[in-house]
Amino acid sequence: MTALPSSLQQVAAERLPRYTSYPTAPNFTPAIDGAVTRDWLRTIDPKQSASLYFHVPYCRSLCWYCGCHTKIPADDTAIGRYIETLLAELDLVVSLLPPRVGITHLHWGGGTPTIIGPSAMRRLQAAITRDFRLDAGAEIAIEVDPRTLTAEMATTLGACGFNRASLGVQTFDPVVQRAIHRIQNAAVTEAAVRHLRDAGIRALNLDLIYGLPHQTVASCVATVERVLDFAPDRVAVFGYAHVPAMKPHQRHIDEAKLPDAAARFAQAEAIAEAFLTAGYRRIGLDHFAKPDDALARALDAGRLRRNFQGYTTDGADLLLGFGASAIGRLPQGYVQNTPRIAAYQEAVAAGRMATARGVHFTAEDRLRAVVIERLMCDLTVDLEAASAAWLPAYNFARERKRLAVMAADGLVEIEGARITVPAEMRPFVRRVAAVFDAAQAVGATHAPAV
Questions:
Q1: Which residues of 378-401 are buried (b: 16+ CB within 10 A; e: fewer)?
Q2: What homologous superfamily does CATH list for 22-322?
Q3: Which of 92, 113, 184, 437 could share a disulfide with 56, CB 3.0–4.6 Å?
Q4: What pLDDT band is residue 69 in, cutting at 50, 70 and 90?
């Protein structure tokens, strides 16, 4: 296992965006509102395929590490009201679109999407299949909390056509679990895996986190060894982002027990080494997949993409987001619903789009987005080819100067117009990507690296 070189410790400690989008969400503005979204939706090409994302912002208990938009419902009445709003928003958006837009990917996130229960899930999926045309090979995925998944809900997911599920594991170390307020032993996870596979959902993803309080290299590797027993198709490995000013519940976590940058690096590398030894392919920065998984095939074919769900095979440039805080990607730019559930429900009830902010793409944004995505996915990009396709006159003169400094430090290799992040520098690819982030160049504030 490679130790973190002292010369790179400062780089590892930097707080940088995940680059699941460009421009990144902190740079969205309220100038993009519901009226703008409505106008943009009306221009959608009938031949354009799309992806759908549904956000459910409720959980039965709050994990202290969580950085998502979620809350604990006072009772299930609140969940019921939210479901009615989702259905109303669906009707509103569909009324602005061409009839039965084709769908290649459908993803439910949260929160805990399965909290809505079997009946509501059947109702919502029926509305989706009524209003959209799901492609025969569409990926229909959902995020699952193994602690609350029932056999009935798993059966419902299978009957509704779901073919992939992502299960949150994070860690199996009981000391760490107590420190993050998420008690989940391996038996609970094993039961959820069995329920899903019995329901016909064969493609399973597992999520892990490093950098948690009390976490060590040994406990990370022990978690991986147990996870391998479940033979997941994909694994996402995220670093914990401690931002108590943004997420007050994180104040429950003892900062003194958090690992430093060098320890976080060692944990991430140990996890990676364990999965690679087990035969998994490393995908981009923080994903792993079996060699025959579609994600690995997309990487080999140069078709790997990155969006708000992480690394994906989803090639659709149109993403329609539903629910509080959901983000959509339209041909003109990004749009995000208000994260405030009451405001979201009020807007939809009044027949308005719930967009609170977004960003309009410029030609330069589109070029920078392509460069950043290719770096994040492939660790390499040809700047001349990218510019020729999107903005021929752009030469990245300022960026090339910064890259030359990085090349001297070994972070990148430069051959003409091709920029490559060496395999051993993969953990620092976001630092290289940030060179092409116009907001980073002027010192804008971003979400922390995780």
A1: ebebbbeebbeebbeebebeebee
A2: tm_1862 like domain (3.80.30.20)
A3: 113
A4: confident
